[in-house]
Amino acid sequence: MILKVIGITDVTVVAGGNAKAVDIGEPTMDQFVATLGPEIERTAA
Questions:
Q1: CB contact at 8 A, 29 and 37
Q2: Could you tell me if 9 and 31 are in contact, meaning their C-beta atoms sit under 8 angstroms apart?
Q3: How does pLDDT run across 1-45, given as a tens digit for each residue?
Q4: Which pLDDT score is estimated for 7?
Q5: How far apart are the first and last CA of the chain?
Q6: CA pair distance 34, 40, nearest whole angstrom
Q7: Which of 20, 39, 40, 45 has its CA 20 to 30 A from that of 31?
Q8: According to the model, what pLDDT value does residue 6 have?
Q9: What pLDDT, on a 0 to 100 scale, did the predictor assign at position 1?
Q10: Most distant CA pair in the chain: distance in Å?
């Protein structure tokens, strides 16, 4: 993996389903990111 070159060896991806909806303004970026917060917190723990 390319990131290993800079020392990153463990990566977890949190999928942000329906991100295209942000492009049309429903929901706002802040609202969209807020829905991902709990999953990001669990993954980072």
A1: no
A2: no
A3: 688 899 998 888 888 888 888 888 889 989 988 988 899 899 888
A4: 92
A5: 23
A6: 10
A7: 45
A8: 92
A9: 64
A10: 38
Measure the CA–CA gap between 5 and 36, rounded to whole angstroms. Answer: 28
DSSP string, 1-45: -GGGGGT---------TTTHHHHTTSS-HHHHHHHHHHHHHHHH-
Asked whether the beta carbons of 19 and 32 are under 8 A apart, the reply is yes
Is the Cβ–Cβ distance between 36 and 27 less than 8 Å?
no
The two structure tokens encoding residue 5: 């070159």
Question: Minimal CA–CA distance to 31: which of 42, 43, 16, 44?
Answer: 16
